[in-house]
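Take one record.
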Amino acid sequence: MDNLTRRRFLTLSGVTAAGALAAGATQVNWSELMAAAVDDPLPSDQSVLVVITLYGGNDGLNTVVPAADPAYQKARPDLAYQTNEVLDLGDGLGLNPGMKGLKGLWDDKRLAIVRGVGYPDPDRSHFRSMAIWQTASPKSPIPTGWLGRWLDATGADPLRAVSVEPTLPPLLAGETTAAASLPLRGLSLPGGALGTAYAALGKPSPGDGHWQARAAKSVLDLQNATQVLGKAVKSGHEQEDDDDEERTKGASAGGTSQLGAQLELIAGLIEAGVPTRAYSASLGGFDTHADERGTQQRLLTELDGAVTPFVQRLQKTDRGKNAVVLVYSEFGRRVQANGSDGTDHGTAGPVFVLGEKVSGGFFGNQPSLTDLANGDLKAGTDFRDVYATMLQHVLGEDPGKILANHTTTIDGLLRV
């Protein structure tokens, strides 16, 4: 979402703490995070949760594609993928052709797909449905996010959860505690001969006095921070220059990109030992009412190109191996294509869970395309079951305390 749309979402969601913090009162910088990594490093055996939100309502049927189902082909004569176009997963399903990296993770048993995820009495409003997903309260609005309540229950340190999005999302706002925000910004040092000379300043020399040694260490710390954070991001002007007509399609519910940069930044923070247990990132633009096939496949290719190297990178360190990635959207799309080569707001959709701790494969039943509720898929898995699993097996917290006594988890989803 762009900042204006996101602020409207924050206001309408009812998560008042997040709205008050949207101006950046909880922003932290890289030096504060690096200092925390030195003073209170994340234990190498402690799990980390990375939540990726796909704003706009991703079409689950063209993501995990029932290409072999005649009802799918009939409902979407111009949008449907054929069986020879998708990446075969078994059970008559295939991944969108833009997700070749995730297909590799599926083959390696590091990708789980939870099918038919939703909530009772679904709401097709972007703002209301996203508020439900982020607060984990399907029946009535509440002023706190589900990870915000986890923060409330486990201490007052905002660094235990960090958002790398432009604005703090409601899921990270509690009643008494809210997560920290680290917006993407460039961090670079001089290059060429000047850069070589600058780098030399960080090398300790025999006989250095106390203050000379501290100055050298400061230069070295800055160089290390640049390696961790700097490569991941561009300046704001560079990001604006990257915008084009294609990127505006599907953006009525948010078109902000930069997911690859967000995840590269998160990977560096995890590897550096920053004591953060939960991170939030996002990709927008999935409101595909028109020209869906090209727009969604471009976005899913971007998702694939960001998440795949992120998960592969995490496998290389002890801390990274304990990270679990959760990817969701506020709703799926309707089964029947509309008259504009797109799909309208629907209900249930797939949720992806990735990482070394994940038991790869399908979880939950594939929704029927013939037994529908007013033209929409029927949810078979409550999204709170996914959250309860993350709370219990990743964050080590009793889900009943956070999810209003909802304690049902998904058996076997994570290796514990």
